Structure formats: structure tokens, C-alpha cells
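Bench notes, afternoon.
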Amino acid sequence: MHRLRRREQPIDATVASYRETVLTGFQEVEDNLAVLRILEEEAKVQDEAVEAARKSLAVALNQYKAGTVNYLTVIVVQAATLNNEITSLTSSSAVWPPLYSLSKRWGRLEHIHPKLKQ
């Protein structure tokens, strides 16, 4: 009976290590999915801001052509539009690190269990 317990101890440690690895993997996946959801919401808001800035620029150009505003107004609106577009691109690029982390973690999980490959 004493020998059996000694044989089970390494197995118990291996199972505990395996369990911790799997749980850590799932936690990392969940964290990255949450980050992606937040970034998706931010991207929608930023896309709306870019669209509004472009409409504002079109209005400013029409006003300039009609002679109701000076060209400085157009330049200011162009700068605001450009800033919104840059911010949108920056927000879009923020998606890559969590996606990379997800693909990296998913690759590890594939090797743990074949059904996770699907």
C-alpha cells in the first residue's frame, strides 16, 4: 500500500501541472477575447468619428466654395479629419497583439487535445 502511494505522487503532480497549464491557457484565451471585444467596440466608435469628420470636411469645402468661410476653416477641418483617420488606424493595429497571442495559445492547446484543433 505504501509503494502504491509513492507511485501515485508523481502522477498526481503531473495531473496538477497539466490542469494548471490548461486553466492558464483558457484564462489567457478568455482575456484576449475580452480585449478583442473591447477593441471591436472602440473601432466602431472610431469609424463613426471618421465618417462624421469626413462629412464635416465635405460641408466645410462646400461652404468655402460658396464663399461663406475662409480656407483656414477647411484646413482646420482637414487636420481634424486626418487626426481621426490616424487614430482609427492606430486602433485597428491594436487588434494584432491579442490575435497573435490567441493563435499562439490555440496552437499550444491543439497539441494538448486533438478535438481542440477544430
